Amino acid sequence: MQLVLVIFFVSCYCTKYVSGVTTQSSENVTVKEKDTIEEVNVIKNNYHELLKRVINNEIEIVDLKNQKQYLKNDLENTKRYMTCQMEDIKDFTEEKYNNLNETKAALMKTMISFSQSLKLLNETMQELSYRQPEKCEENKTECNCTEYSNNLAKNWSIDVGSGYRVELQFTNFTTELKYDVVMVYDAVDATDLMGSFSGDDLPPPMISTGRYMFLTFTSDNNVQYTGFSANVYKITST
Ligand SMILES: *[C@@H]1O[C@H](CO)[C@@H](O)[C@H](O)[C@H]1NC(C)=O
Ligand SMILES: *[C@@H]1O[C@H](CO)[C@@H](O)[C@H](O)[C@H]1NC(C)=O
Ligand SMILES: *[C@@H]1O[C@H](CO)[C@@H](O)[C@H](O)[C@H]1NC(C)=O
Ligand SMILES: *[C@@H]1O[C@H](CO)[C@@H](O)[C@H](O)[C@H]1NC(C)=O
Ligand SMILES: *[C@@H]1O[C@H](CO)[C@@H](O)[C@H](O)[C@H]1NC(C)=O
Ligand SMILES: *[C@@H]1O[C@H](CO)[C@@H](O)[C@H](O)[C@H]1NC(C)=O
Ligand SMILES: CC(=O)N[C@H]1CO[C@H](CO)[C@@H](O)[C@@H]1O
User: Fold this and answer.
1) How far apart are CA 49 and CA 43, in angstroms?
2) Residue where a domain terminates, one of 98, 130, 162
């Protein structure tokens, strides 16, 4: 508005001035006027330029302002996100730490229990190592000697003396049938066979004709039983 007023004043002044002066002056004035107009135009252009720049600046300022707000928001968001993340990590870490602590405690308990078990085992082992020889000895002496051996050949010679006879009564009889055999002879040696016996049947009682009786027992190379037992009686010969 100010600039418009200036232009108006200058054009008014020039018209008045031209009417009262010579041609020479008029020329000079015209030149001046031209200059002024040019100057005004320059100023005008400058003003526009300036205005443009101001507007541009303002736009730029608004832009910058927006950018600033955007960055601020971004920063705020990042800050919030990071805080949340950190809380989360803190929670997670605490939880893991507690778990670790629990595991540690459990492991400790197990270790103690394990070491106790180990100690007990050690004691038991030592006790065992003391007792083992005893047991072995026990087992050695505790042999079942009620069975006859393989490949046995035994003879019994019975003499009840002059004027007497021998009565033989089997009380137990268990041998391997046909292979482990008892022979009974009515003589001083293996000459007069009275009977041969094997298996589970108890042989009948036997009486010799004289003072002698002869018995043999042979076993083969396998299968063992309890064998036999018998009572021998001296009886008066009639
Ligand atoms: C971890 O366990 C120990 C004992 O085992 C206890 O003294 C300590 O307070 C525990 N720490 C946490 C964080 O639970
Ligand atoms: C077992 O016990 C004996 C004596 O009590 C000790 O010398 C030995 O080191 C123990 N062994 C172990 C594996 O603990
Ligand atoms: C003796 O040895 C037998 C096996 O040969 C076994 O079954 C038994 O338990 C042992 N007895 C003892 C007192 O060690
Ligand atoms: C001894 O042997 C007999 C006959 O084979 C059997 O019946 C008995 O049980 C045995 N005794 C022992 C202590 O092994
Ligand atoms: C047992 O008697 C038989 C028959 O007389 C004889 O051949 C054998 O050599 C005798 N065995 C023993 C061990 O005396
Ligand atoms: C033989 O038999 C009698 C009874 O008939 C019995 O008392 C005894 O124990 C038996 N002996 C053996 C060594 O088996
Ligand atoms: C009145 C006046 O100023 N006249 C001037 C016009 O311009 C010429 C040359 O530019 C001058 O010599 C005059 O004096």
Assistant:
1) 9
2) 130
> What does pTM read for this prediction?
0.40
Q: Which pLDDT value is given to residue 206?
A: 96
Closest C-alpha residue for ligand 4 atom 14: 144
Domain range for residue 126? 14-130
Q: How many domains does the chain fold into? A: 2
What is the CB-side half-sphere exposure of residue 195 using CA atoms within 13 A? Answer: 11
Q: How far is the CA of 127 from the centre of ligand 2 (A)?
A: 12
Specify the range with the lowest mean pLDDT, choosing from 51-65, 81-95, 139-153, 167-181. 139-153
Say if residues 182 and 198 touch (Cβ distance below 8 Å): yes
At residue 29, the pLDDT reads: 75
Domain boundary among 65, 98, 130: 130
Contact 29, 17 (CB under 8 A): yes
Q: Which residues line ligand 1 (CB under 6 A)?
A: 97-98, 101, 105
Which residues 6+ apart lie within 8 Å of 125 measured at CB?
none
With a 6 Å cutoff on the Cβ, whether 25 touches ligand 7 is: yes
208 and 147 housed in the same domain = yes
208, burial (CB in 10 Å: exposed 0-12, middle 13-18, buried 19+): buried
Residue 204 has pLDDT above 60, yes or no: yes
